[in-house]
Amino acid sequence: MTESVSPSFSHQADPHRRARLRWRARRGLLENDIIVERFFNRYEESLSDQDVASLSELFELSDNELMDLLLARKELDGELDTPPMQHVIALLRSV
């Protein structure tokens, strides 16, 4: 579910896209919010458009599903188990 984005419309080049992604990242569980906030503080400037697409997919999950992935209580499976998603999960777990 990754989309091709031309360089003129990249996530890093558009502060509005970056703000929208941070807004979408807000969760109902404080634990998720803390992890995601730390992640953005460390990695936001270096995220690729592919990373952003993977994050967008993760943010479609329920709070509990996301927490299970972030805390490694569950591993990626099915359509989510892709190399780009594995990369983003590894980054999220590293904070």
List the helices and strands and how they pair.
Elements: H1 15-25, H2 30-43, H3 49-58, H4 63-70, H5 83-93
Your description of this structure?
The structure is a single chain. The chain has one domain: Orthogonal Bundle (DNA polymerase, domain 1). Helix 3 (49-58) crosses helix 5. It is 57% helix and 0% strand. The protein has 95 residues and is mostly helical. The protein contains 5 helices and no strands. The protein has helices spanning 15-25, 30-43, 49-58, 63-70, 83-93.
Quick recap:
This protein is an all-alpha fold.
Helix content: 55-70%
CATH superfamily: Flavinator of succinate dehydrogenase
Structural class: mainly alpha
| CATH architecture annotation name | Orthogonal Bundle
Sheet-strand content, in percent, reads: under 5%
Task: Tell me, rounded to a whole number, the average pLDDT.
Answer: 85
Major β-sheet annotation: none
How would you describe the shape? globular
Keywords: Chaperone, Cytoplasm
Subcellular location: Cytoplasm
GO cellular component, one term: cytoplasm
Main location: cytoplasm
Supply the key terms.
95 residues; DNA polymerase, domain 1; 5 helices; disordered N terminus; FAD assembly factor SdhE
